[in-house]
Structure formats: structure tokens, C-alpha cells
Predict the structure.
Amino acid sequence: MAEFERIVIGRGDAPTGTLVVDPAQVWFLSLEERLVGVLDAGRTYLARSREPIEQRASAPSLGPEPRGMPVWESRGMPLIPVPLGALATEEAHEVPRLAAVAEAGDRILADVRAGRLSPFVLQRFLRRAAELQFRLVKDRREQDASQEATALEAELRSGAER
């Protein structure tokens, strides 16, 4: 995922570290997470902003689509053909593996296999553990892995006993 100091939705020149995106090229926008989906020359990508996203021009609002009409016949934004290869390519990010988090995962897996926990607990743990490991490595807090993994495990187990 591309990361920029600032993202501006609008037109014009951009200083170094700033991405300026034409409103017509925005296919996804999350102001809370500071994410913008950009369509650029037939490829799509997500861009993250370190600062809040600035909107100089907003994407045109077309109102609700009429019910019962196929999307290709509607008056809304046109469908933009994107090659399937552009949608299928994804940057591979290897999840950091911290021993304390892996051990907590093994304990939860053992309890799921024994029938003491729901498989959904394992699914939630795997997602949250990946996020935790990325965050700990990014913040250079690997030494806190044991405490954080224990807290995550306790949180997920608290309402999950069968």
C-alpha cells in the first residue's frame, strides 16, 4: 500500500510527499482510516495518508439509483473497465511471527480442537494477532509481545467458553 504524507482530492500541483487525486479517479474513500482507492491508468491501488485527507473538490454525488434498473443502464457513474489482472495483483505482506503470539495461537487452536472454544474464536484471534504483530513490529515494541498476546487471548476467551 502506498503511503503519503498528505493526500489531496482535487486538481493542481503537489509538493513532495503529497498525492493529488482527481475526484473522478477516486473509487474508495475512508476519511477515518485516511485511505483512498485510486484508479490510475487502468490499475487500482490504495493510498494511505499520514495526515487527514484534504478535499478541495468532492466526487460528484449522483443520488440514489432507481430500483429495478441494471447498473449498466443507470444514469450513475459509468462502469470503468479494469483488467482482471489489475484486480488480482496484490502486494504480498508476510506477517511477522512473534513467538509469544504464536504460542497464544497454539493454545487457542488446542482448545478449539478439544471443543472448549468455538472455531470463530480462532478465526478472530488469527486476524487480530496478525494486526497485533504488524503493529508491534512497526512500533518496535517486540518486547511487549508476551503481554499483548496474553491480553488478546484473555479478551477473546472471556465470552467464548462453550
Remarks:
- The chain has a mean pLDDT of 82.
- The first helix runs from residue 84 to 88.
- Residues 2-88 form one domain.
- The longest strand covers residues 43-49.
